[in-house]
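Today's session is about reading a structure prediction critically. Students often jump straight to the picture, but the first step is always the sequence itself: look for stretches that repeat, for charged clusters, for runs of hydrophobic residues. Only then move on to the predicted structure, which in these notes is written as discrete structure tokens rather than atom positions. Here is the chain we will use throughout the hour.
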Amino acid sequence: MSITPELVQFMDELADNNNREWFNANKKRYEKDVKEASLAFIREFAEVLPTVAPHIEAVAKVQGGSLFRIYRDTRFSKDKTPYKTNVAMHFRHTHTSKDVHGPGFYLHFGPGGATLGAGMWGPAKEALKALRDAISADATAWSEVWDETTASGWDWYGDNALKRAPKGYDPDHPAIETLKRKSFAITRPIDLDDVYKAGFAERLADYYAETSPLMAFECEAIGVPY
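Below is the predicted structure for this chain, in token form.
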């Protein structure tokens, strides 16, 4: 069992002491309870993820891997606090690169609880058009995908959408509100108690399996395997 209450306790304290002096004084706790525990969980999850999505990978690294850095980029932000207060992981599609944005899975947890994510957030222009074209081509098929995916409690992440129909799409299309979207990512919360219990890696794979209709739809739309 890699993820423990000590991880969230550290992030909770960090939220109240978001400064370099406190962090450096507690660096050993961070390394053990947060970083090492998170990387151990990613290694554990890497063993079960292929049973759900063989083309999505869990990479137990900070640089170029699944674990997000704890350090915030404050260069263009009014908020100058140096550290993130949630632990975040992103499990990317194997076809993802600088030029290709593929669907993936997301996980974060901290003092506010735990949240899962799946799909594509802010896809590039070509991928966004491919998704819209696939939905526009068959509104009935899309509706079935959406209903099956959301039956377990998943829903859109954010309201990142155009106010009007995108250029080239019928404003009266039955899926026009979906076609207006600029991101195609979904989310659902889970209890932290679920995260702490043994076997969370297997349960996480089951949660992501619930998104298979949407993930398969997105992968097919942009021409990558699921």
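Discussion point for the tutorial: Residues 132 and 179 are 6 Å apart (CA to CA).
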